[in-house]
Write the C-alpha coordinates for this entry.
Amino acid sequence: MSPAGRPPPENAVALTAARQADSIRRRQRVLDALQQLAAHGGDASVSGIARVARVHRTFIYRHPDLLAQVRALDGDDRAGT
Protein backbone atom coordinates (compact mmCIF):
# COMPACT_ATOMS: atom_id res chain seq x y z
CA MET A 1 0.00 0.00 0.00
CA SER A 2 1.08 3.54 -0.62
CA PRO A 3 1.36 6.01 2.26
CA ALA A 4 -2.16 7.25 1.48
CA GLY A 5 -3.52 3.72 1.90
CA ARG A 6 -4.11 3.20 -1.81
CA PRO A 7 -2.57 0.32 -3.74
CA PRO A 8 0.40 1.31 -5.91
CA PRO A 9 -0.33 2.09 -9.55
CA GLU A 10 -0.10 -0.85 -11.94
CA ASN A 11 2.98 0.55 -13.63
CA ALA A 12 4.80 0.69 -10.28
CA VAL A 13 4.02 -2.97 -9.69
CA ALA A 14 5.24 -3.86 -13.19
CA LEU A 15 8.43 -1.82 -12.72
CA THR A 16 9.14 -3.50 -9.40
CA ALA A 17 8.65 -6.94 -10.94
CA ALA A 18 10.92 -6.05 -13.87
CA ARG A 19 13.65 -4.79 -11.53
CA GLN A 20 13.47 -7.95 -9.43
CA ALA A 21 13.67 -10.12 -12.55
CA ASP A 22 16.72 -8.16 -13.76
CA SER A 23 18.41 -8.58 -10.39
CA ILE A 24 17.77 -12.33 -10.50
CA ARG A 25 19.29 -12.53 -14.00
CA ARG A 26 22.37 -10.54 -12.96
CA ARG A 27 22.76 -12.64 -9.82
CA GLN A 28 22.66 -15.83 -11.92
CA ARG A 29 25.32 -14.43 -14.27
CA VAL A 30 27.59 -13.80 -11.27
CA LEU A 31 27.01 -17.34 -9.99
CA ASP A 32 27.73 -18.73 -13.48
CA ALA A 33 30.94 -16.66 -13.68
CA LEU A 34 32.05 -17.94 -10.28
CA GLN A 35 31.44 -21.52 -11.38
CA GLN A 36 33.27 -20.96 -14.68
CA LEU A 37 36.30 -19.40 -13.01
CA ALA A 38 36.40 -22.10 -10.33
CA ALA A 39 36.48 -24.76 -13.04
CA HIS A 40 38.79 -23.11 -15.56
CA GLY A 41 40.72 -20.47 -13.62
CA GLY A 42 41.09 -16.82 -14.42
CA ASP A 43 40.82 -13.47 -12.68
CA ALA A 44 38.78 -14.26 -9.57
CA SER A 45 38.81 -10.70 -8.24
CA VAL A 46 35.60 -8.70 -7.88
CA SER A 47 36.53 -6.83 -11.07
CA GLY A 48 37.26 -10.06 -12.93
CA ILE A 49 34.00 -11.71 -11.90
CA ALA A 50 32.05 -8.54 -12.70
CA ARG A 51 33.65 -8.40 -16.14
CA VAL A 52 32.80 -12.03 -16.95
CA ALA A 53 29.27 -11.68 -15.53
CA ARG A 54 28.68 -8.34 -17.29
CA VAL A 55 27.62 -6.59 -14.08
CA HIS A 56 28.99 -3.57 -12.27
CA ARG A 57 31.32 -4.24 -9.35
CA THR A 58 28.89 -2.48 -7.01
CA PHE A 59 26.30 -5.18 -7.73
CA ILE A 60 28.65 -7.72 -6.15
CA TYR A 61 29.50 -5.43 -3.23
CA ARG A 62 25.78 -4.89 -2.51
CA HIS A 63 25.23 -8.65 -2.17
CA PRO A 64 27.31 -9.92 0.77
CA ASP A 65 26.75 -13.58 -0.11
CA LEU A 66 28.11 -13.06 -3.63
CA LEU A 67 31.01 -11.01 -2.32
CA ALA A 68 31.90 -13.77 0.16
CA GLN A 69 31.92 -16.33 -2.67
CA VAL A 70 34.16 -14.10 -4.81
CA ARG A 71 36.57 -13.57 -1.93
CA ALA A 72 36.62 -17.29 -1.14
CA LEU A 73 37.42 -18.13 -4.76
CA ASP A 74 40.07 -15.40 -4.86
CA GLY A 75 41.66 -16.71 -1.66
CA ASP A 76 41.00 -13.41 0.11
CA ASP A 77 41.26 -13.86 3.88
CA ARG A 78 38.28 -11.50 4.34
CA ALA A 79 35.93 -14.12 2.83
CA GLY A 80 34.04 -14.53 6.11
CA THR A 81 33.39 -10.82 6.62
The radius of gyration is 17 Å. Residues 11 and 17 are 10 Å apart (CA to CA).
